[in-house]
């Protein structure tokens, strides 16, 4: 089976715009959270700075910025007929629904044109696992033999539509979120964009996406399975032939909602991962939705390269049963593999296995 490597990364976040800057911010516990008013209630969020921006679409601006950075690092010709593009987003330009075409296809076409991509772009919009599913789509495109490289970009900007939707579910916290903590109250929303260039070739030791899986348990339109069925089955697939002690950590979804964190703990225990360090990044970035799977994978690769397991911002006291090995403080690791885990509305669940590999 063709190996697929991550050869370029790009980020736009409220705490930094390069992987190195963002990793330093996470290690320092730096966030951009604050309370915002309106829509119609106050909400706590980590939003990007729009000061000085005058373009027609902030979404298009930030996703292009991340994708360009990834392409530049990868050193590829985006116009090649062997280069594909996948866009991950849930709502894209939904904030402009009253004035223009806000279809996800239109956003993907705009990004492709701006990057000079000549192949037809693919859109992945699959609730909170969109970024993970987009990376898996990119892997499959390369393994099909049709592409040498695939640019996978994800972004989300917050809007009244998104915030009021979460408010109607009573899912938002007016305080900093606390993944897996006994006193967790709900999630915080966030904004970011992130991009990874996937390739069948690497000229230096690079992170490889070994395998991935999406498993749907269709438990409920918004509530996760009480037995972690979909998440467990995704984990079971990607960990076939892999021992738990080979993993540096599992980077979980970790939204800090009551039922999500509990479900993930059950799935991790069922998969035999209860002793593997677990961390969540929502306490730094908030829930960035279409960007989350890509953003959190990049930060996890950076952390492993630095030989560390990042802490879970906001966690202090175990709040799930059965317990998992939540990383409350930064730890050292010499392991070169990790799992990225995500879950979302409609009972969708996904897992990716990353491993550091040699040049090829």
Give, in order, the helices and strands.
EHEEHEHEHEHEEEHEHEHHEEEEE
**If you average the pLDDT, what whole number results?**
96
In terms of per-residue confidence, which ranges show pLDDT below 50 for 5 or more consecutive residues? Answer: none
Instruction: Report strand %.
Output: 15-25%
* CATH arch. level architecture of the largest domain: 3-Layer(aba) Sandwich
Taking the alpha carbons of the first and last residues, their distance comes to: 13 Å
Briefly, what is this?
This protein has 360 residues and is an alpha/beta fold.
How is this structure best described in words?
The chain is α/β, with parallel strands linked by helices. The protein has 2 domains: 5-199, Thiolase/Chalcone synthase (Peroxisomal Thiolase, Chain A, domain 1), CATH 3.40.47; 206-357, Thiolase/Chalcone synthase (Peroxisomal Thiolase, Chain A, domain 1, 3-Layer(aba) Sandwich), CATH 3.40.47.10. It is 29% helix and 23% strand. It contains 9 helices and 16 strands. It has helices at 19-28, 58-74, 104-115, 130-143, 160-168, 229-238, 258-270, 282-285, 292-305; strands at 5-12, 33-36, 43-46, 83-88, 122-124, 149-156, 189-190, 192-199, 206-216, 249-251, 277-279, 308-309, 325-326, 331-332, 337-344, 348-357. It is globular and about 50 Å long.
Short descriptors:
Peroxisomal Thiolase, Chain A, domain 1; 360 residues; 9 helices; single chain; alpha/beta; 23% strand; 11-stranded mixed beta sheet; 3-stranded mixed beta sheet
């Amino acid at each position: 089976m063709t190996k697929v490597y991550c050869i370029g990364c790009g980020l736009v976040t409220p705490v930094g715009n390069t992987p190195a800057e963002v990793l330093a911010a996470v290690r320092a516990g730096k966030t951009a959270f604050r309370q915002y008013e309106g829509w119609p209630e106050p909400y706590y969020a980590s939003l990007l700075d729009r000061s000085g921006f005058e373009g027609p679409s902030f979404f298009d601006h930030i996703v292009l910025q991340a994708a360009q950075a990834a392409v530049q690092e990868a050193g590829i010709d985006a116009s090649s007929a062997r280069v594909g593009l996948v866009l991950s987003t849930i709502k894209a330009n939904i904030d402009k629904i009253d004035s223009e075409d806000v279809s996800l296809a239109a956003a993907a076409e705009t990004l492709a044109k701006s990057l000079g991509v000549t192949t037809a772009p693919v859109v992945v919009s699959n609730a909170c696992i969109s970024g993970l599913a987009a990376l898996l789509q990119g892997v499959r495109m390369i393994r099909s033999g049709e592409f040498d490289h695939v640019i996978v970009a994800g972004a989300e900007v917050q809007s009244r539509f998104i915030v009021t939707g979460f408010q109607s579910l009573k899912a938002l916290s007016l305080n900093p979120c606390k993944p897996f903590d006994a006193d967790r109250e709900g999630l915080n929303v966030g904004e970011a964009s992130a991009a990874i260039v996937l390739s069948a070739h690497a000229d230096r030791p690079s992170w490889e996406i070994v395998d991935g899986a999406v498993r749907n348990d269709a438990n409920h339109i918004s509530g996760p399975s009480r037995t972690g069925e979909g998440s467990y089955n995704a984990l079971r697939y990607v960990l076939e032939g892999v021992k738990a002690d080979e993993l540096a950590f599992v980077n979980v979804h970790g939204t800090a909602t009551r039922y999500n964190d509990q479900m993930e703990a059950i799935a991790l225990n069922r998969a035999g991962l209860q002793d593997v360090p677990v961390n969540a990044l929502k306490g730094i970035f908030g829930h960035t939705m279409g960007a989350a799977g890509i953003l959190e994978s990049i930060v996890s690769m950076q952390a492993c390269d630095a030989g560390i397991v990042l802490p879970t911002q906001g966690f202090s006291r175990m709040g799930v049963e059965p317990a998992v090995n939540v990383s409350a403080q930064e730890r050292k690791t010499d392991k070169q593999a990790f799992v990225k885990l995500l879950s979302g509305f409609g009972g969708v669940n996904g897992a990716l296995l990353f491993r550091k590999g040699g040049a090829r």
